[in-house]
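Run folding on both entries below.
>entry_1
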Amino acid sequence: MHQADALGLSERTLNRKFQELTHEPPQSFLMRRRVEHARTLLESTTQPIKTIARAAGYEDESSFGKAFRKLTLMSPQTYRARRMERAV
């Protein structure tokens, strides 16, 4: 069963209501939350990027890298390296 069906709404209505509440489309919200989670893991663990990608909900490292770069303007590897430089 689809989430919209479970709520008794059409998918379009659910998306519109979600956007009214969050001020962003559901896919953008989800991508932003996943990347935020990945950023936390990159900062606080030494887990491989592939493991972090999966933990953030991405099936492959390539999709994760594209989403991460779209929101942070840098690769996960660069992000981790810069965070490590600042910590020293």
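>entry_2
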Amino acid sequence: MRAIRRHSHHRRSIPALAALAAAAVAAPVLLAAAPASAHPREGRLARELVEEVTAKGAHRHLQKFQQIADANGGNRAAGTPGHAASAAYVHDTLKKAGYDVSYQDFDIHEAHTRTERTTVLGPDSREPATAAFTFTTSTPAGGLTAPLAPARVDETPGCTADDYPAGAFTGKIALVKRGACTFVEKQRAAAAAGALGIIVYNHSGTTPVRGGYSSPAEGIIPSAGITLADGEALTAAAGKGEVTVRLDLDQEHLRKTTRNVIAETRGGRSDRVVTVGAHLDSVPEGPGINDNGSGSAGLLEVALRLAEEGANKKGKGTANKVRFGWWSAEELGGSEHYVAQLSEKQKKDIALYLNFDMIASPNPVQFVYDGDDSDRTGAGAGPAGSAQIEALINGFLDRKGKPHEGSDFDGRSDYGPFIANGIPAGGTFTGAEGIKTAEQARRYGGTAGAPYDPNYHGAGDDLKNLDLKAFDTNLDVIAHAVGTYAESLRSLGK
């Protein structure tokens, strides 16, 4: 999952999802046709898939991803041999199962950070922990030295021009709290106010913000992240008098080629496509077995069991075409590239999108994307149909006696481009670097005050650090949703 720079689950930037959701209500893809008559296998296929898909079966794919990472420098990052081998494994496995399988190649940029440092100058000189944003502009040699100017902290901190009083940011480094809008929007607003650089501090946790932009072209001014504690301390100090810092960022940007893997059933209506996706790549820092080998393995196992149910056999296919996508470069735009190359008709033919990103976190919470915005936090509701997807998943978990809670469509994963094009979306994940509350520990077990995945974006995200019970629950969710929608879109009014 991407860290917010795009997801704290991350990355690339996407337009504000609340506005997109409102615009999406009128999108043609959401016009409901009269409900189709029930397919003979409606309900039965979902039950059979849930029974057949197991954590043990999917674990063999996780083992393969770990072996690939071990053989390729410890990671499966986009544009590397580790990712290429992962893509080939998924492609070849599905080809043997009878799917129509293809690669989709595209170019990405890769960021290599050589220096990321913030120094608070003065008698109490110190260096807060700093993370350069992906695709930031580098500072001049020796760093950028300027006074700090804190942006207004409100419900949309640093997102709009009125958060930057006229003249107060010219020639300074903006200090902005994370949240409510993309990093691109914060950066543009700060730059428009005359800021020479931007430092974003976290809204929770103890780690620096790991943000970024979708390409080097989006990086306007030097940008970096710091922790909540350091941000609040600097804000308080700047309120008492001028605080000068030196921001030193040096980052190289390289172009590489990577690929998505797309597999679809041979049968089923091509104007009622059920699309299911997970990003296949890891970050360079680790093997990415939870993020997102877990979602990738879950999709692969469900696809194989769906094939055994005759999805690719002539005359025995599903009512609706099912399309699986293993996106590369979640950090850099694999699903975004996929959606961008679709024609308007092809977009309209996608009935819904299901996303599964990080479904075996070692200190898990069962999150379900909040399609109806019933939690009233962050972005608004997803496009019409998203509420029904959430209800289908919640209903299934309720029948299983599994606790669950909502998660905002915050743009941190691959559903973003689908939502932006008016396609209803839903899915699950089990948490990234966020901190488990005491109430969540009572409901789900695990450790309060600790991250959902303490190995997020690190070398420890390996085969040993998974919760297989959470994995099994989410495999059942995938199986149930795919089996249901493959045979009927009646719950979506289609």
